[in-house]
Fold this protein.
Amino acid sequence: MSVTTGAAATSMATGDEISAWQTIKRGTEISPELKEGFWGTMGFALLGTAGRVVVPIAVQQTLDRGINGPHGLDLGFVTVMAFVAAAALVLTGVASYLMTARLFTTAERGLATLRIKAFRHVHDLPLLTQNTERRGALVSRVTSDVDQVSQFLVFGGIIGIVSVGQIVVATLIMLYYSWPLTIVVWVCFAPLFLSLRYFQRRLSDAYGLVRRMVGQMLAAVSEPVVGAVVVRTHAIEGRTQARIDDAIARYQDASTKAQGFTAFSFSLGGVSAGLANALVLIVGIWLGFAGDITSGKVLAFAFLVTMFVSPVQIGTQVLTDGQNAIAGWRRVIGILDTPADLDDPGADGVQLPHQPLDVVFDHVDFAYPGGPLVLRDVDLRIDAGTRVAVVGETGSGKTTFAKVLTRLMDPVAGEVRLAGQDLRTVTFDSLRRRVVLVPQEGFLFDSTLLANTAYGDLAAGPDEVRRAAAELGLSDWLDGLPLGLDTRVGQRGESMSAGERQLVALIRAHLADPDLLVLDEATSAVDPALEMRIGRALEALMSGRTSVTIAHRMSTAENADEVIVFDQGRVVQRGPHAALVAEGGVYGRLHSSWVAQQGV
Amino acid sequence: MSDPAASGRTTLRDGFAVLGVAIRREPWIFTVSTLGSLLFGALTVADAWVLGWATDHVVLPAFHKGTTTTGALLAVLALFLGVAILRAVGIVARRLGAGVMQYRMQAAYRREVTAQYLRLPMSWHQQHPAGQLLSNANSDVEAAWAPIAPLPMAVGTLAMVAIAVVQMLLVDLPMAAVGLMVFPLVTAATLTYQRFSSPLFTRIQALRAELSEVAHESFDGAMVVKTLGREAEETERFAEKAQQLRDLGIRVGRIRAIFDPLLEAIPGFGVLAVLGVGVWRIRNGQADPGDLVTIAYLLTIVAFPIRSIGWLLGEFPRSVVGFRRVHRVLDEHVDTTYGDVRLPVTDGAARLDVDGLQHSYVAGQRLLEDLSFVIEPGRTVAIVGETASGKSTLTTLLTRLVDPVGGRVLLDRTDLRDLARGELARHVALVPQTAFMFDDTVRGNVTLGEDVPDEDVWAALRTAQADGFVAALPHGLDSRLGERGTTLSGGQRQRLSLARALVRRPRLLILDDATSAVDPEVEARILAAMRTSRDAGSAPSTLVLIAYRKATIGLADEVLFLADGRIADRGSHADLLARNPAYARLVNAYEEVPT
């Protein structure tokens, strides 16, 4: 079976268990840029929001001192006041500019860092976590989830900071005008503030449901496209449409519910505002009778209430959007907090020598997380320069053996040694250079043939690639391509046949020049002519190197110096092909089934 | 982009046209949400009026006289609260209405697009990449209807502005005239902002797609990246795009940083100007302080929502593009026509006639030329040929996924094109090389929703050698597959796909290299099981195999050797091996490797 698949699955942290506050804390640890100049930005934000009270104050001053002042109507005062206010507006506008520009810069820088770190970490995750079905989810974590955080930080963030600033500024000014009226306003809004947590939780649940429904809908929508052949040949158009309609309807319902809840919670602020407006006037008049306040101040207060109301409403809205963003942030952090499993010893590690390597498995056990042992007490030595074939039925542990040998996974017990060095002490850099695994499917990147082959040795140019191809006997194939090394291979190499993709993988491996070659033989048959080329190229590739092949063909086993037979996680037989055939056992059985197939 | 102004006008016109479609399809919800928005707008303005009224009739008199009445105070309370509650109703109607309308349109278009995917022939699908079709149904639909969200608010705002303007004009003409200067200024600033920022947003959208492609490809190739230790280089490749995205984001931020404070300051300056004029008018006894308060207040409340019109227009470019892309699918009319022949339901195997079949994908490049053969009921025939000899194309013609350019395919002497819709699938099953799994249970994936007893499901799984691993799954037949379910290997998927075909007891079964990812020993067991069940007569069917492996070919009663788009030879495997060197070379190549 292919190395990339496995029925066992390791979990990937969703981050769901950490609180919003911890998310922000952890998020700023990962992207320290977010904290840079934070207080300066806050300062500009406060200054900027102060601009919003310039106008109400100007109105109040005009009423109290310019129109109803002690000297009657005072045009000079009004003029001066208007110019002072205009200057204040310009000043606070500049502060707003600085705040917004700084916020965008830090947010974008911080999120680029988050994105890049998360991307890198995905590559450090064990292969099991990155299985095929999850890839879409992994991609969305480094793309749309980060976008969601970014949208929130730059748009919601500005509005949020401004709103909080405005609430603070409005409260301070209200206190300056009249503390009893300020209390009146806050009392009117107290129920809203107190119910906020409750609404947040309900909203967060509602949007959580929406996100799950989106996933199901996307899966359903993909059926008539990706499964077009199955749907047609089995004539299940009706059932497929019903499944899609159902998923679409459920997504629609969930979205509508969430929207209804948002609208309702948003409208509550307006009622508090109406109450506050009325009570300010009523209590204001009453205070006026006691001689504590002027009519101008009461009216200015009415303006201040507006200054207070809109940020409260917008702020609650930001908190709602924030739920989504925090959830996205959590998912990205979830990736970074999933342990990488394999630790690179880094600078402290040892280097492998550049010579054919010998392999020792010292009583190695392996199990997938939470699963039974897949390798049991594997204890063997492979001499440097030998050619070994590993055979066994599906699930016998032969593929796992290859993964442990290349340190895609660490054993749960025992030790794997190359040239006498425990694999865990070898630097990744040295390990990946000296040991190369060629997977069943030659994966190609959407680029030229040159770039894809040179992936094995980044320093290689066209000449090196041609030489490598020549050494593998592939020159005629390469020369036969109209565009040669400039051939574009298409997405995932789809413009080339499966066999050609394997050839590219072999040139790539040869350029990497490893000392231990681990090959996972392809099971799917390709064009016989290409099959022959692949065989010859493999032969050249293996010469002078230690090679371990996960064999699916009799010929491979026949041509190996030695065959290792796996059964239920144990090595049950080993020796040259002829000897094993004579011995019978598991190998004898496998061999006769091969013969039965070939000998038609 | 030769004339941005002209293209801007087109976008504007088309954007309104898209909204027109939505309004025509959902007139009632649109009306409710717009009424909600109007209510909200009217009451926001009424708020100013209530404040002005309270100032002139309750607050100022009270301060002058030093006394007031309970009735007056209660009136203030009732007016403010009444306005606030009605306004809350307006908000709910507007927002919920906009949401309902948007989700309904999205749902309707998604249903239509997917129905179209199901209706359009396979040949159409082969010409359209899956990724593109998925994004048509998802993000394009979403983009097309995005402007519905701000629509009611914008309509309400327009009304609100109109009311506010009339009110201001009624209160005091000169003050209003000065205050109204705010509107053209805000509009001009909004449009200028969009002109500067929208090219950046377009570029950002494109970059996001590129970033996602890099991530997709890199994670797909994770095995290669890991085994060659290329993590750092891959990260570099991704980081380059991420940094471009970051820099664009920062540029957008700078532009916004200029326009946001500007848009906010304009009404402020407007109020200051009104103050100046107002004081002068009050001195001349042409206005009173209440008038000044009302106009200043109206200006401040209208200034912010006026931007919602900008938000609406800002969604237009994306919306128009999305709508066009979706309609490219909806407007396709490549229909498959069906006859009305129904074949009698029998237990017997089907007879297949291929008569002068010709096919090509590219005009002038014939893939199949004049192919004719008959497969008698119950026979097993292997089709062998080099890559690109047209074998897979033949399977798509036999199952009428594609209609041939020339010639006929006959099932029980009936042209496939004369069969009624869905009739072919009752008699013929194809197992393709790539197995597709539905986001469903194992049972659902095998039965495809048909009422099949579990014992039959297990029997099919047994023949496909899939019973073992299915029984070992945590929930057996009820185990979920797909993104959130169990992961199966390629070989396991192929075996389930085979069971899916077997459970329907097809009279003609076509396997297109359907066991390529299965281990050879397991494949041998599958073929043996199929032979046994056929010999036992429990599932008699005609079997067509596309195969590479000798063992698979060996199962056939007869081999059709395909070369250069024709049947080059036909006979038993042994005969062909003996008499046809090209055939022998082809099937023996496998064993000659590597020596």
In short: The CA atoms of residues 213 and 250 of chain A lie 7 Å apart. Chain A has three domains: 11-177+329-341, 179-292, 359-598. Residues 1-11 of chain A have pLDDT under 50 and may be disordered. The radius of gyration of chain A is 35 Å.
